[in-house]
Amino acid sequence: MNVDIAYSEFRARVEQLLPEGAHFLPAASDQELADLAATLGRPVPEELVALLRSAGGQSDSADGPLEWCRFLTPAEIGEQYAMLRELFNDPPEEEVQPSTYRWQIWGPGWIPFAASDGNSFILDTEPGLNGVVGQIFFRPNVPDLDDPLASSLSEFFVVVNAELEAGSYTVDDGTLLLDAWQ
Questions:
Q1: Rounded to whole angstroms, how far apart are CA atoms 36 and 14?
Q2: The whole model's pTM is what?
Q3: Sign of the C-alpha dihedral computed for residues 158, 160, 163 and 165 taken in this order
Q4: Whole-number pLDDT of residue 144
Q5: CB 53 within 8 A of CB 27
């Protein structure tokens, strides 16, 4: 399943389960995507482009729909990326290999796409030897990285949708908490 379809299903579920949540924004423009690529210093991964062309993030008026994380606009992705690069790029600490991750705390190939209070869902474009380009993981504010949640952005939404469809979640203060991630 491609990211457009999986994300559309996720969005429909979120709008049904959390009608008062953060509203989805219109699709990102070509200029917003070009600006993001310039900030990243690399092309925006295709699946992230597809996601941002479906919705250019969410308003910051409420907590995000998933683990309190709100889907970021292209500008916010760039801001988060630049902030993390500035904080942790002297040089980034490499993970002992073989590992799923190439970096320990932060790496230049990590692109946050949803975030809240220092916690982020990350698309990894530079994984370790045991990882997969495009893998998705959760980076807590105090990095103690668990295994990746999915091998791609498409798979991430397929997994989330399956959990929601199975009723394997709780709603807490306007966000969905998946049982599998607790």
A1: 26
A2: 0.95
A3: negative
A4: 83
A5: yes
